[in-house]
Structures
1.
Amino acid sequence: MIIERPSSARGHVRTGWLESRHTFSFGHYYDKAWMGFGPLRVINEDRVAPGAGFPPHRHANMEILSYVLEGGLSHQDSSGGGGVIRPGELQWMSAGHGVEHSEFNASQDAPVHFLQIWIQPDRVNAAPTYAQQAFEPADRHGAWATLASADGRAGGLPIRQDARVLGTLLAADEVVDYALDAGRLYWLHVVSGEIEANGRPLTAGDALGFADEAGRLQLTGRGTGRADVLLFDLPH
């Protein structure tokens, strides 16, 4: 089964300093048909005004990934983690038995544009932890790079779930493949740009879910510039 999630169908929330697009139900946006996909619970595309952000708030038992597209995102948490996340970097905070954190635009002049991703962990009430990793764009040009994986065994950040988060950057006519296993779930999210996925045209914010599907997923870059694409390989 292939599930389509067009960008235009996502939830949309706007406040004075925040504009968010929600792939799945979150906060003020609720749709019982879109509560998540396997352990993938949240993909929020956020734009935060200069100098603004999320004051200290608490999370527990969630793997939280932040992926910055433009600008800088300043993070502080009660586990001792903190810093500024820039484009090309991924931040991981495992909330464990409970952690308080804040996120603010690191600039007083320019907005920050980022994805926040939540994955439910495979264990509960572990100790909170934090890490941040930079990824060379050249390693993703026309190829998959592992950005996060189960306890870091396959590379990338060491999330607490039997999952892999992969990324690629595709110029026009560049092709990457991924083998689908019917015993796994897959969620494909176009961060920016244009691609075709097994012949289906997709643009920024569009997503496809794959359940009980086997065979080859082939992505082809389209349009100008490079498309930025994430793939989540998840337990069923």
2.
Amino acid sequence: MDRFNAMRVFTRIVELRGFSKAADSLQLPRASVTILIKQLEAHLGVQLLQRTTRQVSPTLDGAAYYQRCVQLLTDLEETEAVFSTQRQNPRGTLSVDMPSGIGRLIVIPALPSFTARYPQIELEIGLNDRPVDLIREGVDCVLRGGLALDESLVARPLAMMDQLTLASPEYLARKGVPTSLEDLVNHQMVEYVSSASGKRFGLEFEVGGELQTVNLPKGLAVNSSDGYFAACEAGFGLIQAPHYHAMRQLAEGTLLEVLPQLAVPKMALTALYPPHRQLSQRVRVFVDWLVERCAQSGTGLQR
């Protein structure tokens, strides 16, 4: 029995809570996964996994063994990277999740430069705004706009994104163009609801060095960035969003900037990953590339 391979299989079963999901993730036959776990439990003389009809969970011994396996596998990967060509040429699959707008408009168009630099890294990109359980879903790294809510993850700041206030031409023709905060009394907004925290966001402005929140009557509430923009373009009210996401609509005239003299707080863009993967060479080079990419002019993150 290859004990390191068995440990790798065991950790994926715990993280994904199932034999079949772990087998698919590791591209192994399910029968091989089952045999490896039986051999591992026999070798250790303890039951590692509790199996039910719905899911698989670690026993008390299994939970303790999982923590040691994660550390050992991480140390092994880092040690091999130090003494092999993997330090210069990391390889393997890297799973990354990010908001659809950042993926479509910022990251994916620039990915050819990353894959040319690291041709042996196979990227799996997920695009959505929902919260992701990195361990259970086998995700190595996520990109998120706004404050990092999970303090158990390692956070790497990438950029502070410029934001602006937007409305559709049809909405402004119907409601009038606001020229001051006082004018907003006659307006409405599209409300953004965070799918991660459930928090509802109004409009925010920086006035005299202080943050001022403006909650207007809502024309519609949505929980995705694409829906947020679609609602604004359909005339449901004002929104505030990162500049990069509005570049096409501004160029085409489907959205217009309003109240340009009133600054909107910048939004943080952050890379997050589990502590046990903070030394992974694949994660490290990808996050370093993101920092480099975000620092470049022309990304659209700053006006």
3.
Amino acid sequence: MLTISKLNKFYDKTHVLKDVDLSVAQGEVVAIIGPSGSGKSTLLRCINLLEKPESGTLTIDDLTVDVAKISTKQENALRQQTGMVFQHYNLFKNKTALQNITEGLIIGKKMPKAEADAIGLNLLEKVGLREKADSYPAMLSGGQQQRVAIARSLAVKPKVILLDEPTSALDPELVQEVLQVIRSIIDHQTTILLVTHEMSFARDIADRIIFMADGAIVEDGEPEQIFTRPQHQRTQRFLLSYQNDVSGHRP
């Protein structure tokens, strides 16, 4: 479903992503972990072209683009294949929860408002916020705003959902409600890439764990292998700080 080949991204002279190669199967849930500044969020933003890589190829489903020669038409087509959930929600402040979800359907997909509203209300039900349909973001908690953002990402039926540290801006008591919603949307038909610092959650829900450092994928494997038998010293050092968090995580 998703293939990344020789992806490179620079900020001025800083080489942020270094020849990144990654393949993700349809319906696979992949969690990306690693220290701050390792390129995790930049990788997600390059996949849906919020950031423009300098070189490499991206394939989502049957669409392949060379990022150095990409046209506006290709860019829009690729972006329509993904749904993005940001750290800070990125909701329209002047639109209700329902309007935030339906905006992409009505404007982007030219869907009739009644049809879009029906989809939006169904998704709000799915994330446990049906009664907040007419509420504006300022009236919602951080956890509720993020749940609306997740519903919005699902509305366009993307091939790939990208979640960029979706709990990092939340107060600790709100984290679990968002993690539970993420858990509920995993259907093993939609492909999910999740950047997270929630190690126990990543270990529980992911089919694969990717450890990134210094702009490169250092280690890639099944959760049990990465968390109990990491092969690379960088991975071992990183996970030491989370040892207490991941021990005995499974019921």
